[in-house]
Write a structure and sequence with these properties.
GO molecular function: helicase activity
Organism: Tsukamurella pseudospumae
Number of helices: 16
Number of strands: 22
Protein name: RNA helicase
Shape: globular
Radius of gyration: 35 Å
Helix content: 25-40%
Strand content: 15-25%
Family: Belongs to the DEAD box helicase family.
EC number: 3.6.4.13
Structural class: alpha/beta
Distance between the termini: 108 Å
């Protein structure tokens, strides 16, 4: 059984400095307004700083990244003598000392950025002198060369996805023999994506004399078995507030039974609700994600898409724009559900009903983060009612039969604070009506052109052919162009008119008794 710690609303969490974190890390976090710990961080930091194995369990958005990231960086920076071995951590020499395994590319980038912020300006002592702490990300969808070059230059912390980590380790570019701190982040998601065999192979390559930390929102059976196999007497910590349930209580949840053809119109009106900020829309399929993004863009919204049919560069560009505010709507499949850590997401819309209760929890976990409030809206089609009943029963939401709702329903405007006067597109954007035909401008008439033409036979000028002459295309009375010679069409020339030779397709059967063309000409 895990050690469940229930935290009341009047509890004042300690600061990172009070828990013994290195002053350099404290200053780096302070620059970004992060001073005090969240519940999971408060409970895991003392154990992790001492080098103990642990299992950290907390819901999405509760600060698990710094729950393992801060003690990991702290141990590398201070090189404290911990209960990992007789000599503690080895000196940094450019080979990885810490490995963090994550399930998705987006989460890999996010964790790397969080660690870089925490280690900003922090110097470490190595065998070759003092330098900055080096952190790199290794994931698929990117060329191998840049990642191999980063490893060859030397790195202290590696954050990566299982597949690419395994590939580079087999090729000999990634040295795992000196890893002393191992982290499995979002372990249940890696199980759902089928990465468990790859993880076991990677774990077999790292030394057994190490500190291992496993963090996850849920703890299914296979993950518990994995923890028992690869962790040494771990402490299982689960942090909760006194009024917490399986889902965020600070997130207001609405569920509507919606028709497929009316969903985009409903989304367009929800996006014009009062107080609406950054919004994430989740779909089950890649095709639906792109279609919804295109339709919202036509209605005037600043929207981007993240799904499997897009290249890694395009996905990172869309996520970057969403983070910096260039776009405020992101349509994504579940691949991005755990890769985005933005505190300002105010609304989450489930365009299609999630597959199960875990997917639902992770989706709506994108809002109501870090103690803030949020709004989650779920659309359930008629053929998805049974799936929703299972989700509602598993989470105890008390909404087994969603209300039938359309884009013109009064309770939709009342629930979400939408002005009843809003339309399905932003003001000033005219949506093309169905069947509307756009008239094209007629082409402008072109001026007649003069060109030079010479008859040839076999690449040579024909015998008796007149020298090259200018032929002008002049329009006739019926408007069709005609070729007029210098004498005019009715004038008689010096040489008799030659009979035009008819070309025959190659391989065509010649009529009986027909003479060759050359013989006929003679």
């Amino acid at each position: 059984m895990p050690d469940v710690h229930v935290i009341g609303d009047d509890h004042v969490s300690p600061s990172f400095a009070e828990l013994g974190v290195d002053q350099g890390i404290v200053d780096a976090l302070g620059k970004r307004g992060i001073e005090r710990t969240f519940a999971i961080q408060e409970l895991t930091l003392p154990l992790a700083l001492a080098g103990n194995d642990l299992i950290g369990q907390a819901r999405t958005g509760m600060g698990k990244t710094y729950g393992f990231g801060v003690p990991l960086l702290n141990r590398l920076i201070t090189q404290a003598r911990a209960e990992v071995g007789e000599d503690g951590l080895r000196a940094l020499d450019g080979t990885p000392r810490a490995l963090i395994i994550v399930p998705t590319r987006e989460l890999c980038v996010q964790v790397t950025e969080d660690l870089e912020r925490a280690a900003d300006g922090v110097r470490v002592q190595t065998t070759k002198g003092e330098r900055d702490l080096k952190i790199t990300s290794i994931y698929g969808g990117r060329p191998y060369e840049a990642q191999i070059e980063a490893l060859q230059k030397g790195v202290d912390v590696v954050v990566g996805t299982p597949g690419r980590l395994l590939d580079l380790a087999k090729q000999g570019h990634l040295v795992l023999g000196k890893i002393q701190i191992l982290v499995l982040d979002e372990a249940d998601e890696m199980l759902d994506l089928g990465f468990l065999p790859d993880i076991e192979k990677v774990l077999g390559m790292v030394p057994t004399d190490r500190q291992t930390m496993l963090f996850s929102a849920t703890m299914p059976g296979p993950i518990i078995t994995l923890a028992r196999t690869f962790l040494r007497q771990p402490t299982h910590v689960r942090a909760e507030h006194h009024d917490d349930s399986a889902v965020h209580e600070r997130t207001t949840q609405f569920v509507y039974r919606a028709h497929a053809l009316d969903k985009v119109e409903m989304v367009a009106k929800i996006l014009q609700a009062e107080g609406r900020g950054a919004t994430m829309i989740f779909t089950r399929t890649k095709r639906t994600a792109q279609k919804v993004a295109d339709e919202l863009a036509e209605r005037g919204f600043k929207v981007g898409a993240v799904h499997g049919d897009l290249g890694q560069v395009a996905r990172e560009k869309a996520l970057g724009k969403f983070r910096d505010g260039s776009i405020d709507v992101l349509v994504a499949t579940d691949v991005a559900a755990r890769g985005i850590d933005i505190d300002d997401v105010t609304h989450v819309i489930n365009f299609q009903c999630p597959e199960d209760d875990k997917t639902y929890v992770h989706r709506i976990g994108r809002t109501g983060r870090a103690g803030k409030t949020g709004t989650a809206v779920t659309f359930v089609d008629w053929d998805e009612l049974h799936r929703w009943e299972l989700i509602d029963k598993a989470l105890g939401l008390g909404k087994p039969e969603p209300a039938e709702t359309y884009s013109s329903s009064e309770h939709l405007f009342t629930d979400l604070g939408i002005d009843p006067k809003v339309k399905g597109s932003l003001p000033g954007v005219r949506k093309r009506a169905e069947g509307e035909v756009v008239e094209r401008k007629p082409r402008e008439k072109r001026e007649p052109r003069a060109r030079t033409r010479t008859r040839t036979r076999g690449g040579q000028k024909s015998d008796g052919a007149a020298p090259a002459e200018a032929v002008t295309e002049a329009p006739t009375s019926d408007g069709a162009p005609s070729a007029a010679g210098p004498e005019g069409s009715g004038a008689e020339g010096d040489a008799p008119a030659r009979k035009r030779r008819r070309r025959r397709r190659s391989g065509a059967k010649k009529p009986e008794g027909a003479a060759p063309a050359e013989a006929a000409a003679e």
